[in-house]
User: What shape does this take?
Amino acid sequence: MNNQQAHGADPESAKGEVLDALVVGGGVSGIYALYRLNEQGHSVRLVERGSGLGGTWFWNRYPGARFDSDSYSYGYFFSEILAEEWQWSEHYAGQPEIERYFNFVVDRFELRDKVQLDTTVVSARFDSNNNVWVVGYADGQEVVTRFLVLATGMLSEPYIPAFDGMDDFQGVMVHSGEWPAEGIDFAGKRVAIFGTGSSGVQLVPEVARDAASLTVFQRSGHWVTPLNNRPFTPEEQEEYRKNFREVHQKRLGHIGGFIHEPEPRLTFEVSEEERLRKYDEVYNSGGLRILSSNFADTLADPAANQEFSKYVAEKISASIEDPDLAERLIPNDHGFGMHRPPKGTSYYETYNSDHVQLASLKESPVVRFTKTGVVTTEDEFEFDVIIFATGFEAWLGALKKIDIRGMDDEALMEAWSDGPRTLLGMGVPGFPNLTFVAGVHSVGGNLPAFSEVHADWASDLITYVKRHGYSRVEVTKEAAREWTEHVYETVKPVLLAKGSWYQRGNIPGSDGKILTYYGGLGTWREWASQVADSGYKGMEFQ
Ligand code: NAP
Assistant: This one.
C-alpha cells in the first residue's frame, strides 16, 4: 500500500467543495454505500476514523476473530467479479482474510481515492439556508455535503463496564473491539477474560493455547455450539461461482438475509425421532443454521425453546469432564437464541485444561480491581493481561460520538430521547438529507445483505432528489411514527433475553428501547419499494 492509498484523498482538497454525499464509516455498509453512490454518478467521499478499512473487521483483530456465518454468503453480491476474482479459504474466514476482502473490493472497483482514513467525524450540522450538512472532523477541518450517509456501524463502540479501581491496574487492559495491530503475546502470561458472548467464546481457546493461566469471568452462561469450520475447497468455490445469482436471490428472499433453508415445521408437530434428527442436523451443520434452519417456533414458543435448549445443554455436559463445571457453564437465565448465540471451536473443551478456570460473577462478583489484578467477594487474582470481551453499545454508541444537529439545532440524541424514531431506519423527522446504512430499525441478520439494499435505496433517493431539482428531503413525523410502531410490533413474538444488545439491554440503566428490526429483509424491501414507487410517500421535498 503506498502512502496515498494508506491515507486516502488529501483533506485539503475538500475546501470550498460541496459533495453530493459524505459516507461516514469504512466498514461493510459504508464501503458498499461508497460504491453505489459513486456508480450512480454522485460526488462522494468516505471518511473513516481507523487507519484501515473494514470497520468491525478492522478493529476486531483479536485472536480467533472470524465469521460465524458462511464466508461466501457474508460478502457483497453487486458484481460477479466478486465471485470470479475472490476465493475464500475457509467456510468461516478469519479476520485477516476478511479485512483483505474489503480492501480488495475497494481497490478492484477503484474507490481508494475516494477514501479518507484517520478521519474522525465529531459534528454534523444541517444548514437549512443552503440545505447542506456542515461536517466537522476532529482535526478542526470541515466538509460540506448535500447528503450525510451514516454508516457508523451496529457494533462499533466498545462497552467496558466500570469496576472500582480499574485505573489502578498496572498490567495490560484491552477490549476485544480495539485490539492492537501489533497483537498481544500471551506466552507465560496470567490472563483474564471478562465476557462470554461471541467475542469471548472465540478468544478463550486461542488465549488458553499460549497463556500460563486463563481465568474466564462469566456473568451469564451462553449457548455455545460448534462452528465446524473447514476449508472452502476450489470445487465449492466453483459451485458458488456458478450459483452466484441464485445465492444472491436466496439471500434477498431470506428473512435474515442468510442462505439457510428455513424449516417451516414446528417443534412438536413432528415425532421425537424426527425432532432429534433435525436437531442433530442443525447442530452439526455449523454456523448460524442452528437458528435460521431450526424449527420455526424455536424462538417463538417457550416450550419449543426449552426443548432445544435441553438438547444443547446435554451436548455441553458431554464436552466437559467436571459435571459441576458443566452446570455452571450451562445458561440458566435464558433459552437458546434469546441472546445471539455464539459459535465456538473447542470452547467448552478448553475448560478441561488445568490452567483454565471459570470464575462466576454471579456467585462471586468483583469487589474491585487492584494494581495487580482483581478482587472478588471470594477470591483474589493476579493478572498480567485483562481482556474485556464485554460487547458494544449497539448503534447509538457510535452516533453519540458525533454531535448531530438537524432543524432548529435539535440534537439527534435529544430527538431520540424516548428511543429512535425512523422511517425504515433510513430517515429521521427534523433531520433532512440524512440517511443511514445498516442503522437502527433497519437491520436484523446478515449485515452485508441488508447494507446492499439500504445503500441502493439511499442512493436512489439522492438520485431522485437531484433529478427533480430538489435540494431537500425530510421524513414526516407520521411516517416515522408508523414505521417505528411496526418495528415494535415485529419484536413482540420473539423470545428475547432481557440483557440483549438488540434492545440496549446490555447497557446499565438503559431504556430497553428496540433498536433492531425483526420484520425481515423481505418486508423491509416491500415497504421501502412502496415508499419509493409512490414518489416517496412519507417524505417531503423542497
Ligand atoms: P456480547 O454478546 O454483548 O457479550 C458481552 C459479554 O460481556 C457477555 O458475556 C456479558 O455478560 C459480559 N458482560 C457485559 N457487561 C458485563 C459486566 N458488567 N460484568 C461482567 N460481564 C459483563 O458482546 P460480544 O461477544 O462482543 O458480541 C457482540 C456481538 O458481536 C455478537 O452478538 C455478534 O453479533 C457480534 N460478533 C460476531 C462474531 C462473529 O463470529 N461473526 C464475533 C464476535 C462478535 P451477560 O451475558 O451476563 O450480559
Residues 447-467 form the longest helix (21 residues). The pocket of NAP is lined by residues 67-68, 155, 161, 176, 194-200, 202, 219-220, 340, 361, 389-392, 499, 501, 506 (CB under 6 Å). The mean pLDDT is 94. The first strand starts at residue 18 and ends at 24.
